[in-house]
């Protein structure tokens, strides 16, 4: 950290830090909140079906629900293992 | 038709009970028949804030279970005419509150001519808090200008928008924000979140700002809702909030640092 950074951070008041942190966490949590309750279970069950055919890990399947106006898009992203 | 207002916050210790006591007293003092219900089963405190702790015979759970009727359980406030208190049970567990039971009591109160039903919610997002907010037409979200309280308030706003009966029927609970323990000096110094900051983060209409004041503790020490202290800035701020709640346009006060005049300073020093 340079000496300039030190002065800059010293100038920033704690209330603005609080506001910034809150804006980030609140936006993140609102995003989580709008997701339907069935999403984690759906992800789990999809994973089980896929596993019957391909060897994938939990974190290689990504289920995402996006709302675009009055239509919702369920996006399923599966990273298949490298072919040996 | 009765208007059901929940006083909620998520976080504990921000002033829900103080607010419930003040707002219900204020509404009653303007001539509306009002009841304030303590939903904090097992940890009742509204009674001690309103100085009727020794007059509790039957409670909310007794009425739900049919062990007493409303008339026996309601405590008439000694200060504000038109105001009644329905205390929480101190002994039962909070599952004693059922959706059907609470609904029946609320309907009975409305049929009894109560215009405003104030529900003092417990902290947290457990059963009791859920019961307090479920039937609400309006929610007063009490927050302190502090990170954990603001974050919890946002969470509560989300729950109101999805889990309340109004939300289930595709309607909206009317929400408003009451910022308590506000210290304009610290806001000016950049040490505390300002009203605009909190409003911006929560995107909720502001009902009022209650300044941090010694009179709030003094009032609770004596069991007198702080709104009765008309000299106190906190009491006046609650009174303004009640006016806004009843639809009046009142300018916000106590949000900036008070400029002390020369006379006031001299007076204070000699006093």
Throw out a few tags for this protein.
heterodimer, A: 84 residues, alpha+beta, two-stranded antiparallel sheet, 2 strands, B: 271 residues, alpha/beta, eight-stranded mixed sheet, 13 helices, 8 strands, globular, MinE_sf (chain A), cell division (chain A), MinE (chain A)
Describe the structure.
The complex is a heterodimer of chains A (84) and B (271). Chain A has 84 residues and is of the alpha+beta class. Chain A has helices at 3-11, 14-33, 39-53; strands at 61-68, 71-78. Chain A is built from 3 helices and 2 strands; from the N terminus they run αααββ. The termini of chain A are far apart. The mean pLDDT of chain A is 80. Chain B is of the alpha/beta class. An 8-stranded mixed sheet of chain B has the order 3-4-2-5-1-6-7-8, sandwiched between helices. In chain B, helix 1 packs across helix 12. The radius of gyration of chain B is 18 Å and the shape is globular. In chain B, 49% of the residues are buried. The chains are: A alpha+beta (84), B alpha/beta (271). The A-B interface holds A 13-16, 18-19, 21-23, 25-26, 29-30, 33 and B 146-147, 150-151, 154-155, 158, 162, 187, 189-194, 197, 200-202.
Give the low-pLDDT segments of chain B.
none
The CA-CA distance between the termini of chain B, in Å, is: 51 Å
Structural class determined from secondary elements of chain B: alpha/beta
Helix proportion range of chain A = 40-55%
pLDDT averaged residue by residue of chain B: 93
Order of helices and strands of chain B: EHEHHHEEHEHEHHEHHEHHH
- Poorly predicted regions of chain A: none
Give me the count of strands of chain B. 8
Radius of gyration over C-alpha positions of chain A, nearest whole angstrom: 21 Å
Largest sheet of chain A, in brief, is:
2 strands, antiparallel
**Multimer state:** heterodimer
- The proportion of residues in beta strands of chain A is 15-25%
User: In which order are the strands of the major sheet of chain A placed?
Assistant: 1-2
Number-wise, the strands of chain A total 2
